[in-house]
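Can't paste images in this forum, so I'm doing it all in text. The chain is below; anyone willing to post the predicted structure tokens underneath?
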Amino acid sequence: MQTDILISDLFKYNSRFLLKKLGGIDKAKLFVRPNHNLNPAIWIFGHITFFRGELVELMGLDPQTNGLAEFFGSGTFPRNDPAEYPHIDELTTALERLDDQIVDALNQGGEKLLARRAWGKYDTVGKHVIGSYIHESYHIGEINYLLNLLDKGLSDQARLSLATRRKNSTGKILLDNLKSVLTVK
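Text version of the structure:
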């Protein structure tokens, strides 16, 4: 199978996973910021969408993502008022359109597109594509973790007692066994 087709399938998978995850939640959870160090899911989703637009532009296409940089570009801060954000449906539509543009560009441009010289952090479009995929996958993991945490509704008391309920990991079991064998008595 060709590299360009595999990569386009990875982007399609990310989109399906993300949209499914966000589609079935209470929309109020999109704006929850558990503490000052964590971004709300809406900001992370918008950030992924914004960076997909950057990739589409790098591929030579029009991403039609005007205005997203002020909300979701690197170095921006989450807004406190949910009304200040673009609506989730707008972001969803933009992500789906950008996904189609990326997949079409990869399928039509193939290996030649991936090898094309590029500006920015990496010297080829292919390196940008891979970097973008890794970047968005990281953020999709953040969204998944954040929404799972919100679904659990962990209280401070529950968080404090997690250490006492932790199961032994395989690594810990192996290390304990090694210690018992290597310890001189």
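The chain has one domain: 3-182. The domain at 3-182 is CATH 1.20.120.450 (Four Helix Bundle (Hemerythrin (Met), subunit A)).
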